[in-house]
Amino acid sequence: MPTLFELCGDFLDLWSYISFMLPENEEEAAKVYSELYEDAVDNLKLQFGEKLEGYLHIAKRLEAEIEAAKKEEARVTAIRKAAENKRKRMLDAVLTAMQDLGIEEAKTTKFKVRVQNSPKAVYVADGVTLPPEYYKEPKTPEIDKKMLLADLKSGIFSEDENVYITQGQHLRVT
């Protein structure tokens, strides 16, 4: 069976041939058309209809596959997020326990874990307005925290209760 592309080409070739070969006289053109080309056109229409139905069946099946994939994607994403959250809670519990007990470093038979300072960061309270040079773009609310941190460290910008340097701790597991 020809492809959809080939069927379209056959249709266009046939119509081109018909329009080129038909006589100028309308009665004679109708007679030639009905005798010579009606069967060819009907055959092409039948083939096109069958091909079209096949394409539409496949498209419908693919639509169902897409929906199934979306559901599976959502399920797997939920599993991944649950595992990430569980891991974070476990490491937070270990960090809290080590901090409460004053333990900086611990070794097991397979792991070595130590409490390590995180890089310094800047805390900016909600609603605080900073000078324009501390924004990434003049009219956006996104603050250039690296520049602000550097200026806080060097004393160019002074800390207060709304803008200050923070430093947390995290676990380093090797």
Task: Tell me what the structure shows.
The protein has helices at 4-21, 26-101, 145-154, and strands at residues 105-107, 112-117, 121-124, 163-166, 169-173. With 174 residues, the protein is α+β, with helices and mostly antiparallel strands. The protein folds into two domains: 4-98; 104-173, no CATH class. Strands 1-2-5 form a three-stranded antiparallel β-sheet, covered by helices on one side. It has a two-stranded antiparallel ribbon with strand order 3-4. Helix 1 runs antiparallel to helix 2 (26-101). The two termini are 63 Å apart.
Q: SSE layout and pairings?
A:
Blueprint: H1 4-21, H2 26-101, E1 105-107, E2 112-117, E3 121-124, H3 145-154, E4 163-166, E5 169-173
Antiparallel strand pairs: 1-2, 2-5, 3-4
Given the C-alpha coordinates, what overall shape results? elongated
- The strand order across the widest sheet is 1-2-5
Q: Tally the helices: what do you get?
A: 3
User: Cα-atom Rg, whole angstroms?
Assistant: 37 Å
Number of domain units: 2
Strand pairing plus helix content: what structural class?
A: alpha+beta
Give the helices and strands as they follow along the chain: HHEEEHEE
> Please, what is the average pLDDT?
86
Based on the model shown, name its key terms.
3 helices, 3-stranded antiparallel sheet, two-stranded antiparallel sheet, alpha+beta, 2 domains, single chain, 174 residues
